[in-house]
Amino acid sequence: MVNIKTLTLAVLATFSSLVAADPCQSDRLYCGNGLLAIGDYGAAIDEALVAADEPVDDDTRNNGLFLCANDGTGDISWDSTCEQCQDGGEEDDYC
After folding, report:
1. I need a labelling partner for 21 at 20 to 30 A (CA). Which of 31, 46, 75, 81 fits?
2. Cα(2)–Cα(13) distance, rounded to whole angstroms?
3. What is the pLDDT of residues 24-73, one digit of tens each?
4. CA 75 – CA 72 distance, rounded (Å)
């Protein structure tokens, strides 16, 4: 039989990890390193790079531009890779 305390802790840990990651803003471009700073986007960045047939390495992760989905889910897709990705502040990030 499952221990209720253990089950409760597991559920709380799952929800707290979901709350800890801030979703990106819809239709906004983000540098990969910016996405990593706002939440747990490591796996999503790698998936977006694989889907776009781009190299999955630290340089492409950090300097890639990723478009946040316009549906509020926080899903991303690869847009382009910059030589040096720049933080756009309240606006889109850029090359």
Report:
1. 81
2. 17
3. 999 999 999 999 999 999 999 999 999 999 999 999 999 999 999 988 88
4. 8
pTM of the model: 0.75
Instruction: Note whether residue 14 is domain-resident.
Output: no
In contact, 76 and 44? CB cutoff 8 Å: yes
Q: What is the dihedral of CA 23, 24, 26, 29, to 10 degrees?
A: -160
Q: Is 59 helix (H, G, I), strand (E, B) or coil?
A: helix
Alpha helices by DSSP H, listed for 1-95, are: 4-20, 32-38, 42-51, 58-63
User: Which residues span the domain enclosing 29?
Assistant: 22-95
Integer distance in angstroms from the first to the last C-alpha of the chain?
55
The total number of structural domains in the chain stands at 1
